[in-house]
Amino acid sequence: MRKPWRHFRGPGIGVAVLAGILLSGCDGEDRDRQPAGKAAASAGVARKVDPCAYITPGEVTAITTDAVIRATASGDTCVYEADPDDGVQVTIHAGDGVKQMEVVRRSAKVMAGMGNAVSGKGRTGADVGAMLQEDKSVPPALGDEAMWGVNAILSVRKGDFFVAVTPPVMHDPLNHPGYPLIPRAERRRIALDVVRKILEKNPL
């Protein structure tokens, strides 16, 4: 069955991916300009991990109140799929957490610039421009550094460990009467609770 509500999540993710691709090229150029020792220290060495191994479907269900029907790993991301939404997405990096957090921060600035470029192009441009602005709210006191991004994405680094959580946008309307779209404050609470559970279960 096609899920038309996926478009609520899509624009922000698509732009984030684009920014990440652009920055990956810049990152390589920056390393070329750095002394070899400094570049190696800042980049870290990534270790292959199973992104679905850090929090269980049952734990995600308890946090979101929507039953997870499957957890699927794809690269560095685990999707805890619920009905009817795609559910929680958890991205894990071990070994190169400093680099990943730097990419997140630089991506936020790139997206803000893209938003400013389109903000004057009618109502749609204004909406997109507002959506892509950097989140200036105080980040939670988690790990060594944390920040909020578009779509209530929460990114946290602790040592060389990095986790980013994208919360769902919609509850199961069969179990949640009323308007099924999840408010921003609740989406943030979900992302925060997922990250806390991951760090609690996996002390570094």
Number of domains: 1
Q: Which percent range describes the beta-strand content?
A: 15-25%
Question: Structural class, from helix and strand content?
Answer: alpha+beta
Strand order of the largest sheet: 1-2-3-6-5-4
* Alpha carbon gap, first and last residue: 41 Å
- Rounded mean pLDDT is 79
Number of beta-strand segments: 6
User: Low-confidence spans: pLDDT under 50, at least 5 residues?
Assistant: 1-42
Number of helices: 6
Radius of gyration: 17 Å
Order of helices and strands: HHHEEEHHEEEH
- State the helical fraction: 40-55%
Major β-sheet, in short?
A: 6 strands, antiparallel
Q: Tell me, briefly, the overall form.
A: globular
Observed structural traits:
204 residues; alpha+beta; six-stranded antiparallel β-sheet; disordered N terminus
Description:
The protein starts with 9 loop residues before the first helix and ends with a helix. Mean pLDDT is 79; it is low at 1-42. It has one domain (4-201). It is an alpha+beta fold. Helix 3 (57-64) packs antiparallel against helix 6 and helix 4 (97-118) runs antiparallel to helix 5 (122-131). It has a 6-stranded antiparallel sheet with strand order 1-2-3-6-5-4, with helices on both faces. It has helices at residues 10-33, 36-43, 57-64, 97-118, 122-131, 184-201; strands spanning 68-74, 77-82, 88-94, 145-148, 154-158, 161-166. The radius of gyration is 17 Å and the shape is globular. A hairpin with a 5-residue loop joins strand 4 (145-148) and strand 5.
